[in-house]
Design goal:
The complex is a heterodimer of chains A (462) and B (239).
Chain A: E1 2-10, E2 19-26, E3 31-35, H1 42-50, H2 52-55, E4 60-67, E5 70-71, H3 76-79, E6 83-86, H4 90-93, H5 101-111, H6 116-129, H7 145-157, E7 163-167, H8 175-190, E8 194-198, H9 202-207, E9 211-216, E10 219-226, E11 247-257, E12 263-273, E13 277-282, H10 288-295, E14 303-308, E15 311-312, H11 318-321, E16 325-328, H12 341-351, H13 356-369, H14 385-398, E17 403-407, H15 415-430, E18 434-438, H16 442-448, E19 451-456, E20 459-460
Parallel strand pairs in A: 3-8, 3-9, 6-7, 7-8, 13-18, 13-19, 16-17, 17-18
Antiparallel strand pairs in A: 1-2, 1-4, 4-5, 9-10, 11-12, 11-14, 14-15, 19-20
Helix pairs in contact in A: 5-6, 5-7, 6-7, 7-8, 12-13, 12-14, 13-14
Chain B: H1 2-12, H2 17-34, H3 37-62, E1 68-72, E2 75-78, H4 79-105, H5 108-117, H6 122-150, H7 160-165, H8 167-191, H9 210-232
Helix pairs in contact in B: 1-2, 1-4, 1-9, 2-4, 3-4, 5-6, 6-8
The chains are: A alpha/beta (462), B mainly alpha (239).
Chain lengths: 462, 239
Amino acid sequence: MLELCSVRYRYPGFARPALDDIDLTIGEGETVGLTGPNGAGKSTLCLVASGLAPASIGGELTGTVRVDAEPLGRRPHELAGRVGIAFSNPEAQLAGVASTVFEEVAFGPMNLGLAVVETVARTRAALAALGIDDLAERHPARLSGGQTQLVAIAAMLAMRPRHLVLDEPAAELDPEGRALVAAALRSLAASGTGLLVAEHDVDLLAVIGARMVHVRDGRLWAGGTAADGRAVAVPVRRAPEASGAPVVIRCENLEFTYPDGTPALTGIDLTIRAGERVAIVGRNGSGKTTLVQLWNGLLRPTSGLVEIASRPTVGRPVAALAREIGLAFQDPNDQLFARTCQDEVAFGARNVGLRGSELQDAVDGALASVGLADAERVNPHDLGPSRRRLLALACVLAMQTPIVVLDEPTLGLDGDERSRVASVIAALAEAGRTVVAISHDARFVAGSFDRSIVLEAGRVAG
Amino acid sequence: MVAVAATVAVSIGGGYIIPVVVLGALVIPPAVVAGVLGRAVRWSVLVSLPIAIAVAIVSILGRAGATVLFTLGPFRATLEGVDYAAQIELRLFVLAMTLAVFGLTTEPRALIADLQRRGVSARLAFAAAATLDAIPAMAARARQIEAAQRARALDTEGSVGARLRGAIPLVAPTVLGTLHDVEARSLALDARAFDRTGMRYLLWAPGDSERQRLARWLLSIGLLAIIVGTIGGVVPRLP
């Protein structure tokens, strides 16, 4: 049993506690789902429950965290065999030096100094527990997102913890990857492992039969609501494209092959008209991001045609296409560099020619529309991950392009933040601008878009 | 061992013969066998070019010598300066090639096993291998950041001035992103008991044949001969 009694935790350098008055018990084979807005303390609670806070990151903990009535150890390797933790980004959890999945999973037991026979036995058992024995000889860097997350969880299991803490384990996964993780978690709980799962996706928590606990302002609220065990199936809308409005994006027999010879897109024919809201959906690796990077000239077609605003992209510099089509990348950390949010948002807008009061209005309007008006003087890297994503959206909005393309705009956002993104998209459509979003978020797609383009293995499937 | 021998030999011996022999005998053959020669040359040129330009300017115009080739204001370009610049730049290129071929042909797990076999601590061996593995990952991240900034109309295809102005939006996210990654990776490693000191029993060890051991002995003897020759004045030193 994992018990947190009267826990209060303060990060190093902060006066205010991030968690206060936390009492939580997770029994053997029990699954507890942790929900709540971003910044409420879910990830901190995961770190405290796993012992990494304070053992690894410092800070001050009062109260007690115990496993089977024994206090958690003070050094990270003393914790590893008792409570395991997996994070939302599966790639960041891999050791990075293994040539096979088997070696990757064996990394933890080897660190414990176990004999080779024991390490091999534990590794085989962990892979079998998650049903991924067939991945054992694959290279860890060549797996899908869902498979990588399962490998990260297996790597924890191989250390034989009594409890497992998972911080948004399915956040970056496509529906197939989520299903894999959900099935694995159900199986783990059935085998007696206690699970604490922080997640925005209540459907996933329902599927794994979690007891819900809500975190707000660092405290637990109204826990104990049982899930009904059924997810809500949200259909992907495939309405016909609107007619009448001018075509702003056209692809004709578009093909793209990467320089190493990997084919990414084949025979893509599609049109998107002004004012449409179109979602691009499909599995990880199906070619969604490649497609939108062909639109703004970051990639050039191997063959076929891409037209933006009735002009082929061939021969047009990316900086010129950026005046027509604004693209927000999936990882906001790939672009943030300025000292203040205001400067960050102004960067792209200035590059496309806005000046003076026009520039100021664009920046203020963009920040206000994503709810960051109060953060204009804040350093972007002082914002939490979800607010950084909203800032990246503001950067594209301020460029005032007729076409706005968003790559996974709701990734890691809580309910209120997702509603805000939905409002921004509705406002853009109202203003006659075209919005295209790549998304795995079925509810968001169903609620905010007129139609979907489904990509499957580099082809339009529907 | 090949990389160590190549690096030491090129660093201590003067003249043109040693670097050319090292390049031809120790660096190019393994690169050809592994099929990485093209990538290694491109990487080495890119890395050594900025330093090579600076060395050329300082050496040719700033180094004293008897044979004056031409004058440029107060500066005199001498044949001795050209000779010195050529020797330094050849070495820079060979060192960059050695590093590139080492990075492109060494499996991280083989490096870990070999370092541990030589008594290096398991954690230090892992750090060395992870560093080797991080180079392509950082390059991929840099490409992603460049794409993200170009999508915000950053001009990376225009004049030199425009490219210089675009350096901060490219460099800052690379550095900050790497720091974020280090933080995330550090937590993940702690969660996998990496902080524990002491022996690790590895699942795999690279092969070590009679021929490999013989090659190492020959390399060691050759290296010793170069060191002794340099000290004794038989092998030329850098001017």
